[in-house]
Amino acid sequence: MNMSFNGIQNVILIFPDERPVFLREVNNNMYNVGPYFWAKVLSELPFSLMTPIIFGAIVYYAIGFSTVFWWKFPVFLAILILIYNASTGYALVISALISDKQLAVTLTPVLIIPFMLFAGFFVNQDNIPIWLIEFQYMSIFKYGY
Fold first, then answer.
1. What percent of the chain has pLDDT over 70?
2. What pLDDT digit, counting tens, does each position of 74-120 carry?
3. DSSP letter (8 states) at residue 99
4. Which of 33, 95, 121, 144 would bridge with 15, disulfide CB 3.0–4.6 Å?
5. What span, in angstroms and rounded, lies between the C-alpha atoms of 133 and 120?
6. Total-model pTM
7. Helix (H), strand (E) at residue 12
8. Which of 80, 77, 142 is nearest to 112 (CA)?
């Protein structure tokens, strides 16, 4: 959960400030959306990898997870990296849809809590109504946790 909200807040607080510059440059035909997106992803890649790795290296041993099998630690780190990057992608969608930074920060928990609900954190998945069951497959939390 910490990695998810960390990734979301890192994007929600920065991307709305970049948006006017991006829109101006795209409207002036300086570049398209694709090159901007890939440049942003590649420039943030070291941070997107190091944050979960440092967090995971501290938490894994502090919690006392298994040190008997060597492969469990890299799997744990890989899952943390995927959770962090999926949350970052979700935050990019939110901040692209909502141009006001304060509104985006305010609405983020409102948009995240249903995903936590459908992942089975608050309600057993067997108790979710059948017409809402498809929403659990869109939850970024269902797959990581």
1. 100
2. 999 999 999 999 999 999 888 888 888 889 888 888 888 888 888 87
3. -
4. 95
5. 11
6. 0.85
7. helix 2-12
8. 142
145, pLDDT greater than 80: no
3-class SS string, 25-58: HHHCCCCCHHHHHHHHHHHCHHHHHHHHHHHHHH
Residue 8: exposed, middle, or buried by beta-carbon count in 10 A (0-12, 13-18, 19+)? buried
Sequence-ordered alpha helix ranges (H) in 64-100: 72-97
Q: For the chain, what is the mean pLDDT?
A: 88
Residues constituting the chain: 145
Distance, in Å, from the CA atom of 45 to the CA atom of 47, rounded to the nearest integer, reads 5
**Amino acid (1-letter code) at residue 82:** L
Distance CA 136, CA 53 (A): 27
Helix 15-27 × helix 101-119 angle, to 10° = 110
User: Can you tell me which residue has the tokens 């936590």?
Assistant: 116
